[in-house]
Specification:
By secondary structure, this protein is an alpha/beta fold. It contains 17 helices and 15 strands. The chain starts with 6 loop residues before the first strand and ends with a strand.
Length: 500
Amino acid sequence: MTPPSQRLALIPLDDRPCCRLFPVRLAAMAGHRLEIPPRRLLGKYLDPGNPDRLMDWLDSHLRSRPGSPTGLLLSLDMLVWGGLVASRRFGLSPTEAVNNLKRLALLTRHQPTWAFMSLMRTAPTQTSLEEVEQATRLTELALWMSRQARDLPGASEKVQALLQGIPALWVDRYLKARRRNLFLNLMALRYATESDWRHLLLGIDDSRTEGLNVLEAARLEAAIGELKAPATVAPGTDEMAQLMLVRALAPGTELSVHFSKRSDLDRVTRYEDRSLLGVVQAQVQAAGIKLSDGATRQLWVYGPRGEQQEASRQAPLRRRSRRAARFVQALCSALDEGACVAVADVSRANGADLGLVEELLQAEVLPRLAGYAGWNTAGNTLGTALACAALASARPTPATEGARLSFLLERMADDFLFQAALRQEISAPLGGCFMRLEGARLKETREKVQEIMAERVLQFFEENFASTLFEGRRPHLTRVAIDLPWPRTFEVEVQARIDY
């Protein structure tokens, strides 16, 4: 572990909790403080962050203690474009982005830097029904263009047919944005090498097993080899800062991985370009840790029954799951033997598996876990759970135990109480969880979510955490704050503080 005296600062991908708060929570679990800039500089949703002001903040932060190196975890998407959503926008000139990257390279030349940057996902951002239609057509076109690039039979004819049904302006803007972003990805690799950054992680955003971004990833991997760049390409985007935090604080940590069944290793889940085992291996490499069968730090992966489905399609739980019961029984045995266990619930996409959570609660094992994750994509979930397993303190204190329980409660509130249950109830009358809310509708929805979630989080704490003793002390839930971080119902922000 990095000495507690080292300073750490984060420029997140955007202001969502997974990017802004998860790394802060994980650092606290390990006994470290991670400093972040004011939220107003990060933008919100479709409004980009302010790269100039963020670099001013970074410069000021570095000058405040000259000669004392600061570990920097930096989102290049935020510092180059103004965030993840901004990086997908059409019509942005690369000139300003290149200048931002040059300035950043100068700022970080003598600082230990772990940077991360996304590969543009296949689908553009969607906030309206028209944009959903546009994204669907462009995604199919990108798929067939990737097949055309590999000279697959019939691909050229299919591309020409698809082009007839898509406005030429849409196609032109989309392909220009992809070329622009790939150019910046390649430039970032060069600066990572020249500025002696510790590592650069290039994350494949919401991928599939084929598509233009898969071809772009292959080109970047070739460039890494040619430049001998300190870089990795791995699936996932929102968890990139968490993986770089592990590389900064716990390099070389040994981790063992346990799947719910052997067939899970080869399972390709929704939104990923490779198998679950392939995702784990790529994230382990990105995080700078090692796989070891006998390690006491353990990642337990609960996979899908068959093809991965959305959490929103789960039926209400009517009977206990024997599959989940077997998984939890084995997990309890590992805990009893002294293992440090984090659970990655990838049974479903975009939310927890109700059967698994029920078994964890029935076994009263949840407060003993180093971490739990069951949010968004399999890559997102695996990255968070991996970080929990790697960073949980080996010598816990009241502060690190409070941080661990706080993050556990936040994850259960978000992944289980909201994503797997309340989100569907709230979103259905609004036209879906991605639709942009405004005015009175946003206000009413926010207040409804806050009221329901606050009550459920308090109840969950009392039923599952309140009797978890540490050094003879009981935990106290001293703060719960609920919000919709963006004007939509896809994600919720839960900030909980548990003190001993």
